[in-house]
Amino acid sequence: MSLVRFSGLTVSVMEKGNEKLLLDGISLEISEFSIVSLVGGSGSGKTTAGLALLRLLPVGLTIKRGEITYKDENLLKASSKRIQQIRGKEISMVFQEPLYAFNPVFSIGSQINEVLELHTSYSKEKRKERIWELLDMVGIKDPKRVANNYPHQLSGGMRQRAMIAQAIATNPKLIIADEPTSNLDVTLQAKIMKLFVKLKEELKLSILLISHDLGVVENISDKVVVMYEGKIVEAGDTASVFNEPKAEYTQRLLEVSKFK
Fold first, then answer.
1. Which of 78, 188, 223, 224 is the most buried (most CB within 10 A)?
2. Can you say whether residue 117 is alpha, beta or left, with left for phi > 0 and alpha for psi between -120 and 50 degrees?
């Protein structure tokens, strides 16, 4: 069953008086309980697609046409109040660099607590217990101590796990993970990818995984969508895209990933 569907989404920006298309009529579907990887180089439009889904496009970017439906509800026509209800509760996001996504002056626990306070009716004590539970779920040892730490006190891998804990705090239906391993070494990349698979299975959620590297997403994706210059050039189940790539750009990406 479809959870999210992009239909002909077109996003533009004005550059030096000329209109440039960042997304050129893209259409894709994210099924329930699946991992869909959106892959492409810098400037391909993949992050723009993720931000459009949450109505978080930067100032200056305009949605020209198309739809994004979530459970058959067109998010592009939803009220700001409705989007605020969905954002962080039903659809959450894991950003590329948690050191900058987290507020440096508040502890990790207080920032997860903010999400719980906004989207749940938990008591103060229940929220505290939930924070410890979430940090434990993502593989952080000594969650009570880490909850009191500030972002700069954690390693890159631990910060990423903490951000994932924040993203799953309200049992969302979909997580958008934007380049979640690009600043980690190969060993940590593999561990974070395994964590996503574990959470998908345990929490029955879907994941839109945004990456520039086909090699990173190969072993966890149900479906791969390849983007180039704002367009989808190839899409299919993971085995088909990797074993029988049709687009020349996909073939080049695969060659690059082999040498990493």
1. 224
2. alpha
Q: Domain extents for the chain?
A: 101-171
Q: Are the C-beta atoms of 120 and 170 separated by less than 8 Å?
A: yes
What is the secondary structure of 27-88 as a DSSP string? EEEEETT-EEEEE--TTSSHHHHHHHHTT-PPTTEEEEEEEEEETTEEGGGS-HHHHHHHBT
Instruction: Give the tens place of pLDDT for each residue, 24-83.
Output: 999 999 999 999 999 999 999 999 999 999 999 999 999 999 999 999 999 999 999 999
pTM score: 0.94
- Pairwise CA distance, residues 84 & 57, whole Å: 14
pLDDT in tens, 117-172: 999 999 999 999 999 999 999 999 999 999 999 999 999 999 999 999 999 999 99
